[in-house]
UniProtKB/TrEMBL annotation:
Its EC number is 2.6.1.42. This is Branched-chain-amino-acid aminotransferase. GO terms for biological process: amino acid biosynthetic process; branched-chain amino acid biosynthetic process. CDD domains: BCAT_beta_family. NCBIfam families: ilvE_II (TIGR01123), PRK13357.1 (NF009897). The keyword Electron transport does not apply. It comes from Stentor coeruleus.
């Protein structure tokens, strides 16, 4: 069905890519340590428009600039929006990204969930690769610093009715980002409360759409004011995610060690880092890897019995984020970090993933751009 639709309407096409380079390149920051996350953008961006009766326009690489939008555009009223994010790494003489096609495939699925048009993930990635090549001088050469790629699609249909937008815009921008832990790798503390809900069965918590993240900002701030770094989200008593990351916990059972994470469903995002962790653990074959439902009651019981070995979050920004504390129903539980700032398995996974991401080892997940 999707193939037939692509034949009927114009799909996004790399072969139609138009390039319009800036004549006034920006000055690059002299000190990356003073650049806040996602505030400094490269010289160029990608822009393409879609309309219901014609399909996609030719994509254009153009100087980074503001976008004029009608105030009645559906994105402003009904959050008809989706996005993605992945990093570009420097390993001289190469620059590369980490499993970007998986991001593109997830982007297309999220667009559909937000009532937005689909596009070819392969063609979109080819366009993005060209954008990266054009702005390759922006890829940081300093260890721990990367170029963050943000594809974004949103409804531009100027109408206040609650319907699928008949017009949409695709934009890809890129930003300088530093290490998630600028002062050194360190664990975070979590706060858990059944009244704080990010996603729910039958919803769209498994998609990268803006409506899943905006409402989580205020609860996150409240938790920080209580002295904790992040939220352990629950859905009907089941543990789902931590902040904007997937959650993993290493249990000690009578039959050995079990690394557990919630399965993908309507309340859990199919994280690319999450999937990478699962594949690595299966390949190592040293501990049992389980994608299963588990409740906060099971987690607390394991903590009380001292059968939690370690825990961490996984995501694009942090890669692997160690966890050392959980607050639940007025009581704090310490989570072991035997290496001082993390668990042994946590650090081993982090090291393995970052080696692959920076191209220190050859791997099927390496995507070389230049």
């Amino acid at each position: 069905m999707f193939t037939r639709l692509l034949r009927r309407y114009a799909d996004l096409s790399y072969n139609k890519l138009v390039t319009n380079l800036t004549s006034t390149p920006k000055a690059k920051p002299s000190d990356l340590t003073k650049v806040p996350f996602g505030t400094v953008f490269t010289d160029h961006m990608i822009e393409a428009d879609w309309c219901e009766d014609k399909g996609w326009s030719e994509p254009v690489i153009k100087p980074y600039q503001k976008i004029p939008l009608d105030p009645s555009s559906s994105v402003f009223h009904y959050c008809t929006e989706c996005y993605e994010g992945f990093k570009v790494y420097s390993n001289p003489p190469h620059i590369l990204s980490f499993r970007p096609m998986t991001n593109m495939e997830r982007f297309v699925i999220s667009a559909d969930a937000a009532g937005l048009p689909k596009c070819s993930p392969h063609e979109l990635l080819k366009c993005i690769d060209e954008l990266i090549r054009i702005d390759k001088d922006w890829v940081p050469q300093v260890p721990g610093y990367t170029l963050y790629v943000r594809p974004n699609m949103f409804g531009t249909h100027a109408q206040l009715s609650v319907t699928k937008p008949k017009k949409a815009k695709l934009v890809v921008i890129m930003s300088l980002v530093g290490p998630y832990f600028p002062s050194g790798y360190k664990p975070v503390s979590l706060y858990c409360d059944e009244s704080l809900i990010r996603s729910w069965p039958g919803g769209h918590g498994h998609r990268k759409i803006g409506g899943n993240y905006g409402p989580a900002i205020v609860p996150a701030e409240k938790v920080k004011n209580l002295g904790y770094d992040n939220i352990l989200w629950l859905s009907e008593g089941y543990v789902t995610e931590v902040g904007v990351m997937n959650f993993f916990v290493l249990f000690k059972n009578k039959n050995g060690l079990e690394l557990v994470t919630s399965p993908i469903h309507h309340t859990v995002l199919p994280g690319i880092t999450r999937d990478s962790v699962i594949q690595i653990i299966h390949e190592w074959g040293e501990v049992k890897m389980s994608e299963r439902n588990f409740t906060i009651k099971e987690l607390i019981t394991k903590l009380e019995e001292e059968n939690v070995v370690e825990a961490f979050g996984s995501g694009t920004a942090a890669v692997i984020c160690p966890i050392n504390k959980l607050a639940y129903k007025g009581k704090e539980y310490n989570i072991p970090t035997v290496q001082g700032n993390c668990g042994e398995l946590t650090k081993r996974i982090f090291d393995e993933l970052t080696k692959i991401q920076y191209g220190k080892v050859k791997h099927k997940w390496n995507h070389y751009i230049a």
